[in-house]
Every structure is written in structure tokens, then in C-alpha cells.
Amino acid sequence: MVDGGEGPGAVAARLTGRPVSGERARSGGLAEVTLTGGPAVMVKRGDGPGAVRAEVAGLRWLAAARAVPVPEVLGHDERWMVTELIRTGRPDAGAATRFGQELAVLHAAGAPAFGSAPPGGPRDAWIGLAPMRDEPGTDWPHWYAEHRVLPYLREAVDRGTLRPGEAAVIERVCERLPELAGPPEPPARLHGDLWSGNVLWGADGRVRLIDPAAHGGHRETDLAMLRLFGCPYLDRIVAGYQERAPLADGWAERIGLHQLFPLLVHTVLFGRSYAEQALVTSRNFADM
Hints:
This protein has helices spanning 8-16, 51-64, 93-108, 140-158, 164-180, 219-229, 234-244, 255-270, 272-286; strands at 20-25, 30-35, 40-45, 73-76, 80-84, 124-127, 130-133, 188-190, 199-201, 207-209, 215-217. It has 9 helices and 11 strands. The radius of gyration is 19 Å and the shape is globular. It has a 5-stranded antiparallel β-sheet, sandwiched between helices.
């Protein structure tokens, strides 16, 4: 993993001001680097324009809530970031309950608007490998349709992954979102890409969050993302959340609405199988 002749060890030395004694490549654009006389750190290469700036701003915004801990950012530039290395352990029920409680506190820290970017973060951000525009809106149903669901739906149709007739089902759900969305909620401070791979079960028995696509959104979205791809002890996470901040009536029936966005992102990135899931989910709401 080398960028312009500079490898992860050289990046870590430059961005932390510390000499390096070793490095070990991980998957993709990640490497573990050992600082001389000090701890190991994670070095990550950004995948697109503004990706590092967006992730750093997101991590710092989440950290400012003093709720679910995130890795400390030790240095960054436009292409690379260096963060604290989290030593992981095994998931357990107690950590899951605490994570749910802390996630509720994180969401309650709030955001200026639905779609607001973290302070210092770019509006043109990313969710995984997909571009994501953070454009503020005044109410969740209209903002979610216009700035989350429909852009990826149009791209999926343009790529031929979804047919126009199929897209009409999802468009119908977007039209009905004001009546399907449940009671109004204030903008929450979201992680924004909360699948289980971004939940690290620390060796100290506490969960950390990594790789955010942080923005102002609906708190049910993070919980729906956890359920979409599965997460250990999810029932305990939800129970801990409900202890701290009970969810509105009908939240479980709305999970599919919040899963439409990540399903369409995956449709654009990975193809037809996710399109089928998005269609099945949409048909459950289109004519309710």
C-alpha cells in the first residue's frame, strides 16, 4: 500500500512526528504501524476526494458527544489519517447493553438539521465507497426521500440494475413517507454507516465505533442499519437503548423504511441482489 512513493510507516512518522519501528498491512487501505517506544496505530488511506476530511470530522463530532467512544485521530492530511489502534475482544451481553445506552446518548447530542455535515466536514462526503451528499433539510420524510433514497434509486436505474417499472414502487414509498415515518423527531447525531463491521468490541469490554458517515438524521436509521446486516447481542443493544431513550411506538414496523437507503447504496455498489431486497422491502410499504 504505497501512495506517491510514501508507505504507511512514512505517513505515520510524518503525521505524528514519531519514529516508526514496524508496520503490518491489513485489508484494503489499512495498515498497523508501531511507533518507536510507543503504541501501535492505524494508518488509513482515503478512497476518494474529501473522504479523509469527512471521516476525521465525523469521528471528532461523535467523540464530542462523550457517549460511544471512537478512535482518537492522531494526525491526517487530505489523503491519509492516523488513529488510535483499538485492541478487540469478544462481544458480550454487558458490553452490548452499555453500547445501546451510549448510542442513545450519542443520538440525543443532536444535529443542527437533517442532513447537516459534521463541523468542518465537507457536504460532498462518502458512505463506504459511495458518494453521499450532506444537504440540510427541514423535515425528515422529505429530506430522506430527496437526499438519501432517490439519488441512489436514479443511479441504479441509470446503471440498469433496476428497471424503471421497478423504481416506481420505491418512488411510491417516497411519496408516502410523510404518513409512514411515525411521529416527528428532532435531528439526531448519527454514525450513519452503523453495520456490524463498524462496531468494534474492545478488549476492555467497551464498544468503539469506526468508519462513520456521520450526519444529522433520524435515530431509527442507525438501529435499522445494525439489524440489516446483523450484530451480536442486538436485542441487548436495543434494550439498553430503550432504557435510556425509548423509541416511538411503531419503530419496529418502520425498520424497512430506514433500510432502503443502505440497500440502494449497496445496489449501486454491488448489484442486483441488493436491488431485490430493496424491492421486497418497498412492496411492504407501497400500499399500506
